[in-house]
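Tutorial, part two.
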Amino acid sequence: MGEKQKSTIGKVLKRIKRYWFYLIVSLILTLITVASTLYLPILTGKAIDQIVEKGLVDFEGLMGILKVMGIMIAVTAAAQWLMSLCNNRMTYCVVRDIRRDAFDKIEILPLKYVDNHSTGEIVSKVIADVDQFADGLLMGFTQLFSGVLTIVGTLGFMLSIHVGITLVVVIITPVSLFVASFIAQKTFSMFKLQSETRGEQTALIDEMIGNQKVVQAFSKQEDVLERFEEINGRLEKCSLRATFFSSITNPATRFVNSLVYTGVGITGAFAVLKGYLTVGQLSTFLSYANQYTKPFNEISGVVTELQNALACAARIFELIEEEPQIPDKKDAKELVNVTGKVDLEDVSFSYVPDRKLIEHLNLAVKPGQRVAIVGPTGCGKTTVINLLMRFYDVDEGSIQVMDQDIRDITRKSLRTSYGMVLQDTWLKSGTILENIRMGKPDATMEEVEAAARASHAHSFIKRLPKGYDTVIGEDGGSLSQGQKQLLCIARVMLCLPPMLILDEATSSIDTRTELKIQNAFATMMKGRTSFIVAHRLSTIKEADVILVMKDGNIIEQGNHKELLQLNGFYANLYNSQFAV
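Running the prediction step on this input gives:
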């Protein structure tokens, strides 16, 4: 067993330890089940011995034995039912805890992790891998304990009947154990590969379903099908190999078990002929030989399932044990009475260490200033927004709000101080009202309607079947991109925080509505520090300061008129958009 498997087993046992009561009750019930099951062959042997020959049957003794057998069968059935309840309860409590911990971890993972791992892979870990783990764990606790106890119990009973025949059973047993052990070692790596490939397939399916329009628009159906077939082919191969090795376990151990049964039958028959055993005792011995070998089949199956379960558990524990985002400092302060003073001092940052992006960026923003950030794609405009919101921490330098380093401020108070509308909208499953109220759950209906009117969303909301109570699906459902963006704007207008971030906030809105919203933004931005990322330079003419970025650096800075007079990079950008 490798170190990784041992580590995973340790983590699983630590989680099971929380539900020790169910574990102990299950073990007691298993003991009762095995004891009553093993006692039945003795009763069967005694019943057979009551039948001496034709016309010579002790019916009174036989009926007494049959009554006891009926009671034992009832006790066994009740114990097995209660044992299953305990095992189910324990297993699904553990699974619930793992899923909850995984989801809690996703909520505090740094954005770097989410950016570097596909959504489908993460979903596969939390759903498919945990389900596979649950199946293996449940099967293990249902059969592993009872199997081990049955082996020990049958050996004890057989030794009490005849030592010589018991030795025949014990001598052949290691062959079964060797076969099961050899196959178990092979299956773990195969099941792990199967689990990883399944996650890759889930990621592709999730991505393609979510972007079906783009796939069809660029006629990429054939390419996607080829990618799916390639992944599906790999999944088929590793699944077949894993299934093959796990499937040969049972036949291989059954073959060994048949040898045990044959050995007991032959040696037992000679013992009966010589008078060492009665026919009833031979019947008991054969039953025990069968019961003794049966757990080896079950345990080998359990081992295979556990290999799969451990492989899946290893993947989900990898997620749970991922480094979370750097927590707020213990003495982190709440940001209060924010006027909007923001300073970036010698800031350097890159997503990938060997690919530089922002280097030695300096910026001083006064309270209430409207700061526009322009530049070519990939110059670092949105990255500046990510740093201001502390979605990422700077590599060097510092960002200060109200003369306080944002790393010394709680994330919640920092982000509550910003209102953000991005080019990429985000809406949750729920009503229109719930989506607008997201940043201010206690807002009155009048406040919500006022925000919707200011964002020009009220008119289309009223045309929906149930108005503000209309339920929309994940990411807006059937709403147009422009309508979704209007709802996001309404959400910010409802909160009215002291600082605003508008990253292409009107990119999906028609020109006439955009002009109206620009006026609403102008009113909203009065007295509020605002950061505006824009490609359409006509929308940022009124900004107090325009930062022109290129390759992560501010190469020009000033208002619209000053930058045009410079006749530099900004002037070229502006003229290229309005060239006739």
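The domain at 342-578 is CATH 3.40.50.300 (Rossmann fold). In part three we will examine how such features are distributed along the chain.
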